[in-house]
Amino acid sequence: MARGAENRQGSRGASRGLSWRQYKAILRKDIVMELRTKEMVTSMGIYALLTMVVYQVALSQAGTAFDPRQIAAGLLWLAFIFTSMLGLNRSLVHEKDQGCLEALLLSPVDRPVIFFAKATGNLIFLGIVEILTVPVFSFLFLQQGSYEGQWWMIPVVLTAGSMGIAGVGTLLATMSVNTKGKDFVLAVLMVPLMYPLLLAAVSATTVAVLGGADAGSQFWQAMALIGVYDAIMLVACFGLYEFVIGA
Amino acid sequence: MGDNHTDSAVEVRDLTRVFGVRKALDKISFDLPSGAFLSIFGPNGAGKTTLVNVLTTLTAPSSGTATVCGLDVVEGAVELRSRIGLISHNPLLYPDLSAVENLEFFADMYGIEEAEQRVRELLCAVELDHRRLDLVRTFSRGMLQRLSIARALLHKPDVLFLDEPYSGLDPHAMDIFDSLISQIREDHTFVMISHDLAKGLELCSHALILAKGRVVLSETRSEIDDAEFAARYRSIVGIGVA
Q1: What is the pLDDT of residues B163-179, one digit of tens each?
Q2: How many other β-carbons are positioned within 10 Å of the β-carbon of residue B104?
Q3: Where are the domains of chain A?
């Protein structure tokens, strides 16, 4: 056994350098696999676009007096939350189905490293879907009346909100992946936990769309709530992930 | 093995693992010296896989202790993971990555220095160098198992766990697998789960039969009379043994 020990210098433990290498490896692996299979982004993208079509049908009889900008932010985040559930589930199911999660857990990787890598991957994939969806959404629902908000606010709130969705969603998807009705379990866990985030994100996005005299302070107030939510949830996920993934 | 040096590669004391109200492992105790080959037999549901899961840190014990390479499976789990390897009936490889991408990924996970060279060595050793750039989903069962060996040996583990490694292999693939195992036989300690009594006894230096989460027989190879062992195994399992 001394032979093995001699040859393993630098490979034991989870030093900071090794954790960074492991983080990059998991993230790179997820991106390469997604580029090859296009499973997550394609299914999420099509689902999001179909949701837009359904929204348009639902609002088709609203009449010209109705201004869809009043509810645009809510519709947008509703689409993102359901779309993200689809992708989040797939990100872990893929790992589980092939038995690869076992191999990952057998390696000397700190479990929070897996969490952060998976959450980053989910954030990137969700971001791509948002980049594709927002222009379509704007074209369909934000044409009526002049745009009075400030465009730069939209990417800011989308990024902050998506961080919360990706972080909490990754934890919950890991919890639900071993359950029988994983899709149902994820939805049941995710919607109540996301409630504060959704509320703040819809508020900030509404300000971004409608503008107003006090838009700046209202926006940053909502963004502060999103920031606090993200921070608390990411710390909680960091602490809980080892327990959740090992359960 | 530095401070953790011990003559026993595996030490298990009163190990119990409970799932709900069911005891998958019930106060199991045994020792396995370094360099030994332990074959674990037992009927379905005997606790074999749970035992390997505990020893490989995938499942925490409910009570009792287990050390592998002198490291506790709970307290020393992170360090222990870099000193063990698992070859399962499931290849534990990503089908949408190529052979070389799979091994490079796990090389990163284990923090292996000069990973490219190590990956090339192992792909040659398992005779898959010519398929190094092919996606793993295109591999046959035998090729998957050979690549699985390369994955498990990547970080030069001290103890190798084999969970029904022959499952689904054709005779030719079994011969190649045997040849690879015999090449690394002297440098490693092995713990193998098997339903194949003949194959398990052929390879082992120690044998153990589990039933209902308990050790019902534990002997060294020199103590084993094959016919008698098979008869006792049949009586324990309650079915014929091929």
Answers
A1: 988 887 778 778 888 88
A2: 21
A3: 15-58+67-245
Q: How far is B204 from chain A (nearest CA, A)?
A: 19
Q: What distance, in Å, lies between the first and last C-alpha atoms of chain A? A: 31
Q: How far is B137 from chain A (nearest CA, A)?
A: 11
Q: Which distant-in-sequence residues (6+ apart) come within 8 Å of B48 by Cβ?
A: B40, B41, B42, B193, B210
Residues 6+ apart with CB under 8 A from A231: none
CA–CA separation, B193 and A63 (whole Å): 70
Q: What is the pTM of this model?
A: 0.87
Look-up of token digits 């709970």: B74
Q: Which two tokens stand for residue A102?
A: 């076992």
Residues in contact with B42: Cβ distance below 8 Å, sequence separation at least 6, in sequence order: B48, B209, B210, B211, B236, B237
Q: Rounded CA gap, A103 and B86, in Å?
A: 8
**CA neighbours within 13 Å on the CB side: how many for A175?**
18
Q: A65 to chain B nearest CA, in Å? A: 52
Average pLDDT by stretches of 10, chain B with 242 residues:
60 94 92 94 91 94 95 93 92 94 96 93 92 94 90 93 86 82 88 90 92 91 88 74 42
CA distances from A31 to A26, A39, A113, A122, A123 (A): 9, 11, 16, 10, 11
Interface test with A, best of B75, B82, B137 (most A CBs within 10 A): B82
Neighbour-count burial of B167, counting CB atoms closer than 10 A to its CB (0-12 exposed, 13-18 middle, 19+ buried): middle
Residue B234: which of B209, B205, B207 has the closest Cα? B209
Residues of A in contact with B94 (CB under 8 A): 29, 33, 98, 100
Cβ A224 vs Cβ A99: under 8 Å: no
DSSP letter for B164, please: S
Mutant choice from A6, A7, A9, A11 vs B, greatest count of B C-beta within 10 A: A11
**A156: closest CA among A204, A106, A111, A86?**
A204
Q: Does B156 touch chain A (CB under 8 A)?
A: yes
Amino acid at B171: P
Cα radius of gyration (chain A):
20
- Report the complex ipTM: 0.86
CB contact B84 to A (< 8 Å): yes
Four-residue CA torsion sign, B59, B60, B62, B64 = positive
Q: Which residues of A touch B92 (CB under 8 A)?
A: 98-100, 102-103, 106
Token pair 């704007």 in the structure block, residue: A138
Residue identified by tokens 């790179």 is A28
Query: Which residue's structure tokens are 């191999």?
Result: A103
Of B2, B81, B95, the CB nearest to A107: B81
